[in-house]
Amino acid sequence: MKIAIFVLSMLTFQTLVGAQEMKVPDLIPLKKATDNFMSKLSNGQEEAAFNELINKYWFNRNDAASVSMSLKGQYLGMKPKIRTIGKRLPNGYEFLGYRRVGKSAVRLVYGLKYEHQFLPWAFSFYKAENQWTLNAVAFGDTVSDDLRALSINEPAK
Fold first, then answer.
1. Staple partner for 133: which of 11, 59, 77, 111, CB 3.0–4.6 Å?
2. Residue 47 CB neighbour total at 10 angstroms
């Protein structure tokens, strides 16, 4: 019984430790695209960040331009509130992990780093047949469930 518990706990630990690594081959292009988005965003290239990601992956190509503009507007509208957490750090972002449901739904979660805190971002992708499409982008408080799900709890030492 003790051996079974030890093996289970080691498997759980390996799963949690490996959560930040993208080991599923067909998810690698999604991570590259979202890494590129976060890199551009962290360096003040908001327009390029939103346009590239949305134009390439948005599920409804007819809406891509308006969705990109809307999301960029929402983010820029938050800037006065965001200033309270300090200056954005150049190249300051971190891939926090991903949540996957089956083989057709995945959510990649990032932190955009500022001087005193990070702003969480999440990108939801869906694969109906053979192509991944982006169907949601979330940031700020709307990503709190993802942060809870990806957090690792450790006992105090």
1. 59
2. 13
Instruction: List the domain boundaries for the chain.
Output: 25-150
Contacts of 77 (CB under 8 A, 6+ apart): none
- The predicted-structure confidence for 78-129, as pLDDT tens digits, reads as follows 888 888 899 999 999 999 999 999 999 999 999 999 999 999 999 999 998 8
Q: Strand runs (DSSP E) across the chain, as ranges?
A: 88-101, 105-114, 118-127, 132-139
Burial of 134 (0-12, 13-18, 19+ CB in 10 A): buried
Enumerate the β-bridge partners of residue 122: 109, 138
Question: Distances from the Cα of 156 to the Cαs of 14, 15, 153, in angstroms?
Answer: 20, 21, 9
